[in-house]
Amino acid sequence: MTEMPMVRYENVSKRYGAFTVLDNLNLDVARGEKVSIIGPSGSGKTTVLRMLMTLESINGGTLWVDGEPMTHMSKNGRLVPADARHIRRIRAKIGMVFQSFNLFPHMTALGNCIEAPITVLGMGRKEAEERAAELLDMVGLSAKKDHYPGQLSGGQQQRVAIARALAMRPKIMLFDEVTSALDPELVGEVLQVIRRIGAEHDLTMLMVTHQMGFAKEFSDRVCFFYQGKICEQGPPAQIFGNPQNERTRQFLNAVLEAG
Question: Among 59, 108, 214, 225, which is least packed by CB within 10 angstroms?
């Protein structure tokens, strides 16, 4: 029997009224795989991540995480819509970093990183602080642990947000345009942290990005989304070097010309 993927979107649809954002999406992400999602604005890229974090509901299909359905649960031998407790348990395996940092402004960098492990995981304060200090050191911010978000640059805030997500010990990490709100000179420091996470942690990673060079270098696979569907997917060398779909070629040409 083949191993279930870490993440599976099975005929997943998302609509807002008459507008279809995602149309019967089927996507498997293997354990430890790094997948970049690219495409024009409005193609459904961010919705793919937000559904996995249950920030958006789905209108059809099933989401699977770590071999279990997330949106449904088994009851009397059949799948029924999942209750809140089931969803919370599955969602605990997922961490997400947003483009807008979303740090608590009244908490220090360390405070931001220990809040959820203590309140959600029930971790002791001492263990949570030790874990947070290790992660802040990993993202190069051990000297800033007592600083508040307002005292940090955008790049530093985003690195705190990455450490905060890792503090929950997720199996899956989602990155939604994590460099888009940053000044250009700060982009590199955040991408370097993501590289390090990929190298040092056994994580499945999904990343929505406009950083084509990074997607090409970092990803195991690239998925090009257009109008709510995967238009083309494959290894970075194929997608960037020899795309088969005309819409993929148009998009990449436009991005490279602008970039």
Answer: 59
